[in-house]
Amino acid sequence: GHIKNSPNSPRGPIQISKLNATSYIPKIGYKELSDGPIHITLDPRALEQELPPPDEKETMLPGEQNNEALETRLYWRRFAVLAVFSLYSLVNAFQWIQYSIITNIFMDYYNVSSIAIDWLSVVYMVAYVPLIFPATWLLDKKGLRMTALLGAGLNSLGAWVKCASVGPGLFWVTMTAQIICSVAQVFILGLPSRIASVWFGPREVSTACATAVLGNQLGVAIGFLLPPVLVPNTADDKDLMGHNISIMFYGTAGVSTLLFLLTIFVIKDRPPLPPSKAQAVLSTGPAEDYSYKKSIINLFKNKPFILLLISYGIMTGSFYSVSTLLNQMIITHYPGEELNTGRIGLTLVVAGMFGSILCGIWLDRTKTYKLTTLIVYVLSFIGMVVFTFTLNLENLLVIFFTAGVLGFFMTGYLPIGFEFGVEITYPESEGTSSGLLNAFAQVFGIIFTLIQGQLTTDYGPLSGNMFLCAWILLGIVLTALIKSDLKRHGVNVSNINKGQAVPTELPSEKASSDVKLESSSLPHETSI
C-alpha cells in the first residue's frame, strides 16, 4: 500500500490503506496484520528530516569510523630523515659494486678467479633472501628507527672490517666484511616505501620513495666511477695496488661512521601526526590486531601482487646481473678500458636516477601505476636489445648512449615497482611488501648473475645478454596481467557523503520494499 498525509489536517493522522502483509515490529519480530485501515499519528515535521545513513562501520578500515577526527600534518624533519637514509643507503650500494667494476684488478691482487669476485656481489643477494622475513618483522614490531640503526651500524662495521683485509692473502677477510655489509642491506632496501608513507603526504609519496631509491642508485653510480679512479691497474706493483685499495676502504669507513651517528640523531619512527589520511586510518587501528604471519599470508593470496613479485624480480634481477658483469662485458670487447667501463656504469645509473625521479613525479600527478609500469617495462626491453646488439660495434660512444637509455628505464622501474606494490596491498605493511619484492629481486639476481656470468665466460657477452632479454620479455607479459586496484589512493581521495541515505532492504519479503512515503514535505521519494 502507500502512506499518505491526510489532506484535511496538517497534524492529522496518516492513513495506511490496503495493508495486509507481514510487518516488522522492533523487539517483537514479524507479525501478521489484519485487514482494514490503520491510523498512525505522526508529526509531519519528522518527515522533513532526512533519514540517517546506515551504519557503515562494518565495512570500514580501523580508524575510518572517526574520519572527521583524523588530523594530518607535514613536518620539515621528513627531508632530513629522507636525506640521511638516502646517504647511508648510498654507501651500502657503493660497497656492493666496488669490487665488480674492477674485477680484473681484485683478481690479480687477491689471486682468485672471476667467479670469486662475482661472489662478492652475489653474497648481497644470497644474504637478503633468508634474512628478509626477520628484518621485515623487526620493522613492523620495533619500528623504523631500530631498523635504520641496524642498517647504518652494520654498514659501518663492515666498512671497518674491510680495512683489515688489505693484503694479497686476506681475501677471506674481505669476504667476511662483505657478508656484514650484505646483512646491513637487508635493513636498508625495504625502507624507501615505509619512509615515504610514514613521513610524506599523498601528493609527494611517490617522489619521496623515488628519492630514497635514488640514494641507492647514486651509490651504485659512485661505485662505478670511483674505484677505477682510486685503484688503477698497477699490476707490476702490488704494494701500490694495496695502498690504493686501503685508501678506498678507509674513506668508505669514515663516511659510513659519520652517517651512523647522523642516523642516531635524525631518524625517528614516525612524526607526531600522520602525513596522510591513509596513514591516519592505519595509525588509529588497534596494534594488537596486527599479525605479521597473517600479513604474509594475505600478500601471498593477492594474485596481482604475486604477478608483480615475479615481474619486479625479473627486471631488478636483470639490473643486478648487468651491473655485476658490466666489467667483463666491456673488457671482452674493449681491453684495458677499465676507466671507461666505470664511466659507462656511471652513465647507466645516473640516467636511471633521472628516470626514477621523473617516474615518481609522474605517478604523484597521475596515479597511473600499471600503465607507467608496463610502458617502462617495454622500453627497458627495447633498451636491453639495443645494448646487446651494439656492444660489439667497437665504438664506445655508442655504448655510452645505449647504456644510458637502458639505465633510464631499467633503473627508473625500481621505485615504480615499490609504489605499485604498496598500492595493491594496502593496508598491509609497506615494509613487508617491499621486503618481499626485494627478496624476489635478490633470488632472480643470484640466478641471472650466475647463469649470465657462465654464459659470458663460455660463449661471450651476446649469449648472456640474450638470456636476459628473453626473461624481460616474459616480465612484460606478467605485468600486463596485473589487475590495478589502487587501494591506498582510494582511501586518500575518499569523500564520505554523510547526508546521503543509502537504500536498504528490510529482512522481509521483497514485496515489503514496495512501501513508499509520499508527502509534500519530503523532497524526494525514499524506499524503505
UniProtKB/TrEMBL annotation:
Q: Which UniProt keywords are listed?
A: Cell membrane, Erythrocyte maturation, Glycoprotein, Membrane, Phosphoprotein, Receptor, Transmembrane, Transmembrane helix, Transport
Where the record annotates domain Major facilitator superfamily (MFS) profile, the positions are 81-487
Give the GO terms filed under biological process for this record.
Answer: erythrocyte maturation; heme biosynthetic process; heme export; mitochondrial transport
Which Gene3D superfamilies is this protein grouped with?
A: MFS general substrate transporter like domains
User: Reaction catalysed by this chain?
Assistant: heme b(in) = heme b(out); choline(out) = choline(in); ethanolamine(in) = ethanolamine(out)
Q: Where is this region: Disordered?
A: 504-528
Query: What molecular functions are annotated in GO for this chain?
Result: heme binding; heme transmembrane transporter activity
**How does this protein sit in the membrane?**
Multi-pass membrane protein
For this protein, the record's InterPro entries field holds:
FLVCR1-2_SLC49-like (IPR049680), MFS (IPR011701), MFS_dom (IPR020846), MFS_trans_sf (IPR036259)
Q: Where does this protein have coiled-coil stretches?
A: none
Q: Where in the cell is it found?
A: Cell membrane
Polar residues: bias regions: 518-528
Its main subcellular localisation, reduced to a broad class, is membrane
Q: Which PANTHER family match?
A: HEME TRANSPORTER FLVCR1, MAJOR FACILITATOR SUPERFAMILY PROTEIN-RELATED
- Similarity comment: Belongs to the major facilitator superfamily. Feline leukemia virus subgroup C receptor (TC 2.A.1.28.1) family.
Q: Per its record, how is this protein called by name?
A: Choline/ethanolamine transporter FLVCR1
Organism name: Sinocyclocheilus anshuiensis
